[in-house]
Structures are given as C-alpha cells and as structure tokens.
Amino acid sequence: MTSRREFLQTLGGGFGAVALADLLANADAISEPAGSQFGLYGDVHHPAKVRRVIQLFMNGGASQVDLFDHKPLLHQLNGQAFDPGAGLRVEAATSKPGTVLAPPFRLRQRGKSGRWVSDLLPHLAGCVDDLAFLMAMKSRTNVHGPGSYLMNTGFLLPGFPSMGAWISYALGTLADNLPTFVVLPDARGLPYNQKGNFSAGFLPPQHQGTIVNTNGREPIAHLAASPHA
C-alpha cells in the first residue's frame, strides 16, 4: 500500500514531467527553420505567405450600392414597390418591404481600372487601382442577425468558427502568451450576435476572438484579479 507522502511525491513528479514536456516541445518548435512549422498543428504542403489579416466589419455601414456597386436599374425603379422577382418572397422579418430607393449620392468611374466609387469617398477613390473588389458576393438573408453570422462565419446559423478563428487555426501563434485573434469592437457596444461573431465554433477555444475594449475602463475582461477576491 502506498503511503500518503509517497502518493503526493509521485503525483508532484508527474505534474513536473507534463510541464517539462510542454517546455521541451516549444523549444523544439522554436529551433525549427522558418516555415517548417504550421502554427501548432504540424507541417503543410507549402509555407503560408500571409502573416496577419485585418478585417474591418462595418456593422451598420453604408450600403454597397451607395459606395461601390453601381446599379443603373435602381434609378429606373426608384420609388416603385420592391419585387424580388422569380416568385421569391421577402423574409418574414421584413414582410412589408418599402419602395426602391436609388443611391442619393453620385458614383463616378475612378482610376485606370474605371472602378465606380461614390463621391462620399474622395480619398479612397484616389487609390482605387490599389484595391481589390469582390463583386461576386451575395447574401442569402436580409436580416441583420443571420447576415452578421454569414459575414463572419459563412453560415446563417451560430456554432461555426469565425474567419478570425480559422486564420488563427491556420497560421498558428507567434507567442504562447498573446492571443492570435484580437477584436477591437465599437466603444458603443458589440454588433448583432454579440460574441458569436468572433466564436471559435468547433475549433479549440484558444482560437476565439479576444475582445479588447476601447472604453479604457477594463481593456480585457477578467484579466486582473478582482479586488474583492
């Protein structure tokens, strides 16, 4: 029979071995040549060229047809009742659609590429040839909540990893004590679906977004010990 003292000595040594194994694993990863490791998950068939990604999710921003997406037909249909056509129906959340509204701002063709840009963005229009526009995107919903999920995860329903979580999973981490996916929300509050927009879904939880508040009171929630603890 093992005594209590022997049991605690053995248990302590086991915890030390686990910690040592983790430290040695990290040391081996650091000693590998650049590009030979794929984050924390092994090798891939080619090293990633992208080092970091910045996504600006303009919750409540101006419509694309008012900024970049020139739709001459909107001017012809201005003021008429909205009809999605092809026997389609408007989603229940907006079952009483209003009339078609043409862009109230003028769009002009800019740069050598001739890209349409609104007069609202004169400075951005000056560098339009250095930008890439994805014009083949479309949404399967016109409701804000599901639309936010679709924009951030690619799915209408919750429970799937956000784009930031996938990038964190793919590129790995540069430092074990710093998050790979950081979110800087609007100081007035989080967007529709709250933290669901930055979820790791079914990926490991370390890939979820770390929210850094810009209000100055508590930049990262629960980072410091409570004074009443």
What can you see in these coordinates?
With 229 residues, this protein is mainly alpha-helical. The protein has a domain of 110 residues. Helix content is 25%, strand content 5%. A hairpin with a 4-residue loop joins strand 1 and strand 2. The two termini are 40 Å apart.
Question: What value does the average pLDDT take?
Answer: 80
Described by the principal axes of the CA atoms, the overall outline is elongated
Portion in strands: 5-15%
Radius of gyration: 25 Å
What does the largest sheet look like?
A: 2 strands, antiparallel
DSSP, total strands: 4
H-E string: HHEEHHHEE
Q: Report the uncertain regions.
A: 34-42
- Quaternary state of the chains: single chain
Helix/strand structural class: mainly alpha
The DSSP helix count reads 5
Q: Strands across the major sheet, in which order? A: 1-2
N- to C-terminal separation? Answer: 40 Å
Helix content: 10-25%
Short description:
With 229 residues, the chain is mainly alpha-helical. Helix content is 25%, strand content 5%. The protein is built from five helices and four strands; from the N terminus they run H-H-E-E-H-H-H-E-E.
What secondary-structure arrangement, pairings included, does this model have?
Layout: H1 4-31, H2 72-77, E1 107-110, E2 115-118, H3 122-125, H4 144-153, H5 163-171, E3 182-183, E4 210-211
Parallel strand pairs: 3-4
Antiparallel strand pairs: 1-2
